[in-house]
Amino acid sequence: MIELDVVPTACCADERPDLIDAGRAADLAEVFKALADPTRVRLLEHIARTEDGTACACHLPDALGISQPTMSHHMQKLVKAGLVTREQRGRWAHYTVSPDAMAGVRGLLDSVTR
Amino acid sequence: MIELDVVPTACCADERPDLIDAGRAADLAEVFKALADPTRVRLLEHIARTEDGTACACHLPDALGISQPTMSHHMQKLVKAGLVTREQRGRWAHYTVSPDAMAGVRGLLDSVTR
DNA sequence: CTCATGTATCGACATATGTCAATACGAGGC
DNA sequence: GCCTCGTATTGACATATGTCGATACATGAG
């Protein structure tokens, strides 16, 4: 294959795919933002690894070495991003992974690693 | 399948997968943090969509409606996270997607959507 | 050499985020 | 009813982040 020399007086901008929709990018960014913290990454993967994708939170502050209000703050972030759903069972809160939430992430991943 | 009733005086904590390694979570969080902004999501996908996964940046500030220093700031973040690499060609900077950088993201994605 | 172009850096500003102590609230046992 | 347990919320604090104007720097043309 012949590789053309770069024309020194112009950038290689012949190929310019359109930028993706700002709204869709904002949605994706919300999901990424929800996982832009090591504690929340560990929380999501912990829940995902259970047999049925559901876990309660009561033991997690100690396991993670964080305070209970911080724990609550992080879980709220994951719920708000749609990554998990919350169910109150008696006095305990149970969280379940929402598999669909990362569909957009998979789309981006496929683009990047095609 | 018989579904056992939840014991009202205890949480469903019989199954407790180990939390993933804090170091690995921190690495993943860095990648997610790099994409926790709509502008950077658009930038990465734009570059990924080119024929050879390479694009220059000169036209992007206008296309994105942001200033040139902001553009430079965002590209630096993507480079620092290892998502793209930068090559100077004359006066132009060209960016190339690093497909391997999102391997950890794919691992998490597979966990969440199994 | 000067000048133009493209990009990086600095500094300032406003906003966002992670943390925890204190406290409020709801469920459940007695 | 009171008390305990588990969780949510508030407020304060420190740090992180996105923005742009001004400026510095490198490349390239003349």
TrEMBL record, chains A, B:
One of its GO terms (molecular function) is DNA-binding transcription factor activity. Residues 20-114 form the HTH arsR-type domain. InterPro entries: ArsR-like_HTH, HTH_ArsR_DNA-bd_dom, HTH_MetalResp_TranReg, WH-like_DNA-bd_sf, WH_DNA-bd_sf. It holds the Pfam family HTH_5. SUPFAM superfamilies: Winged helix' DNA-binding domain (SSF46785). The keyword RNA-binding does not apply. Gene3D superfamilies: Winged helix-like DNA-binding domain superfamily/Winged helix DNA-binding domain. Keywords: DNA-binding, Transcription, Transcription regulation. This is Metalloregulator ArsR/SmtB family transcription factor. It comes from Demequina lignilytica. The lineage of its organism: Bacteria, Bacillati, Actinomycetota, Actinomycetes, Micrococcales.
